[in-house]
Amino acid sequence: MDLRLMKYFVTVAEELHFSRAAKRLNMAQPPLSQQIKSLETMLGVQLLKRNNRTVELTEPGRVFLEEAKKTLKQAEHALKAAQLAEQGLIGRLSVGFVGSAADGPFIHRLTSFLETYPFIELTLKEMTTSQQLDALLAGEIHAGVLRSDVQHPEIHMLEFTEEPCMLVIPESHPLASYQTLSVHDISSDPFIMPPRHLGPYFHDIIIGFFHSYGCSIRIAQEAIQMHTIVNLVSSGLGIAVVPASVSHFQRPGVVYKHFVEPPPHVRLSAAWRKDRVSQALELFLNHFKA
Pairing mode, if any, of strands 180-181 and 254-259? Predict the structure, then answer.
């Protein structure tokens, strides 16, 4: 059915007057009357009762009016959706992220992105760096937000932010009252670290930092997520080095300390497959570049 006929009928039904309806539609009255008659013939029902002075809806006309309004609204929505899709302002994105990213500027930019592009459906999946790289190559996510310097022929990387690292130690630690701590103060303590095979970039930076000052550390426990590591520190199982943004996670029983030495820095980057760049993904990446 021609949507124009529906629009003509809805306008007449709202005005209950052919002349006023014709004026709203910027057309002459006789053609409008002919179009309504054609619609009634097509449907095989009388939609309007009319005489020289009044126009009224019949019962079938009232039912058809409600359904016609829904159809026109849905058609308008479909048109708008198609136009937004053409501009890349509508679509779906699946994005992996490391847990520590949720404590830093990434989450604020993410909120801003969702406010700017409300028609893009975003699905977030917390994953380790290794899991994100596997998911990217398998086509299971469109982008990853991770800590890595990986070089892969199919993956492109974009740095979002770089931040220093801090120490997190138990509140009961003998050095908890110190404002800053040297690597030499704590190198003999048991450390809690993420497993290297799940995040070699972060792991190697921390180990290399201590080695640069002639120290080696003993990894006593391993945990995947930064918040889990902080919880283990609060239990007195060791100390840890974490990105500074993790210090927003205020867990009772721990204190965060700066290094005396210039601290190691870690990057937070976006990763995506070079052959899977949609307009929605470009908007996502450009938003984080700003």
Answer: parallel
Check if the beta carbon of residue 72 is closer than 8 Å to that of residue 7. Answer: yes
Burial class (CB in 10 A: 0-12, 13-18, 19+), 191: buried
Clarify whether residues 126 and 75 are in a common domain: no
Give the mean model confidence (pLDDT) for residues 154-160: 91
Same domain, 120 and 205: no
Say what angle helices 279-289 and 105-116 make with each other, to 10 degrees: 130
The predicted pLDDT at position 84 comes to 67
Q: What is the pTM of this model?
A: 0.66
Please tell me the distance from the alpha carbon of residue 149 to that of residue 285, in angstroms, as a whole number: 18
107 and 232 in a single domain? The answer is: no
* H helical segments located in 25-149: 29-43, 59-86, 105-116, 129-137
pLDDT of 290: 63
The residue with greater pLDDT, 234 or 3, is 234
Domain range for 67 is 3-86
How confident is the model over 208-247, as pLDDT tens digits? 999 999 999 999 999 999 999 999 999 999 999 999 999 9
Q: Please say which residue of 55, 86, 117 terminates a domain.
A: 86
Q: How many domains does the chain have?
A: 3
